[in-house]
Amino acid sequence: MLRINRENLRNSHETPWLILDLVMLGILFVNLAWLIFDALYATDFVYGLLGTYFPAFLSAYDPVHNNFLLVDLVFIAIFFSEFCFRWVVAIVRKEHLRWYFFPFLHWYDIIGLIPTGPTRLFRFLRIFSILHRLHKFEIIDLNQTAVFRFFAFYYDVFVEELSDRIVVKVLSDAQKDISAGSPLLDDINAQVLAPRRPVITQWMAGVINHLGQSIQSEEHGEVIREHVRKSVGKAVRSNAQVSSLHYLPVIGKTIENTLEESVTDIVTTSLVNLLSDLDAERIDHFISVGMHDYTPTADALDKEVLNVVNECLELVKAHVAQQRWKSHLTEKESAIPTGKPEI
């Protein structure tokens, strides 16, 4: 049941418009009732019935029926005047971006002004326009009505069923393309990655240069330098020729440690210089020349990647295909008490 929020009605200053809407609604009902009666009056059954029981009314209404278009024009003039008045108010209030948007947004009012049988039915849409305006200003709450909840629920069911089938169809087609394997990867490489290779190489160069600067930094590169020092030390100690220096008396151990530190510094400096000197042009040259003969179809990793993507899409399809509206309906029905009250 609709309840009018009087506080919101006062705050919205829509009371005059509500009164105008109610007046126009009353005129609309009179007009539509008259139209229905006049249409029935034109039938032989109603005409004969009125002639039998109300001959005086028949003789009085005949001139009105014969000139009913003029009567309807009076109502049309009232509706048109009210339409123009609302248009002027909308322009003054700047309710729309352009002054001529109003008739396009209220097209049903214009069609309803045409004095023909089918177009007169559009005058009924004014009722929905009034309800929408009252709902917009929170004077009434259509969401709490049983009619709105009924249509909203089945609208959601329709949209969910339709969208789920479309999404599942799209994902199934994507899976077929992915199953093709190499053509898809070739298209991704040629149409997606290749045009963006300058950006990708520039990004890779920036990351590599930043890594080299981090290794050189006293604050952030200590972990990597320590790892290089341990690796080089292990390699030096494992070398048979260097290990033989250990047998030299007095200076053997010193030479071995000095050599280990020198090699560590050389390797670290070389690594820093290598990473810092790489630029986008060299990386692009490496990709063009060094990876020229690389064939994605020969790599087993591509197949695994495609399988992972395919399985992910299958899970998405299963999730999308779930009819959530059934779960919602079941929960709603389970919340309704079914037991008989105790006496």
Question: How would you portray this structure in words?
Answer:
The protein is mainly alpha-helical. The chain has 2 domains: 6-144; 182-290, no CATH class. The protein is 77% helix and 0% strand. The longest helix is centred in the middle third of the chain and has 34 residues, at 146-179. The chain is elongated and about 145 Å long.
Distance between the termini: 30 Å
Shape: elongated
Radius of gyration: 42 Å
Discrete helix count = 18
> Which structural category fits the helices and strands?
mainly alpha
Q: What average pLDDT do the residues reach?
A: 78
Share of residues in helices = over 70%
Strand content: under 5%
Domain module count: 2
Question: Runs with pLDDT <50, length 5+?
Answer: none
Largest sheet: none
Number of β-strand runs: 0
SSE pattern, N- to C-terminal:
HHHHHHHHHHHHHHHHHH
Write the layout of secondary structure elements.
Elements: H1 6-12, H2 15-41, H3 44-53, H4 55-66, H5 68-93, H6 101-105, H7 107-112, H8 117-120, H9 125-136, H10 146-179, H11 182-193, H12 197-216, H13 222-238, H14 240-243, H15 252-277, H16 280-290, H17 300-320, H18 324-334
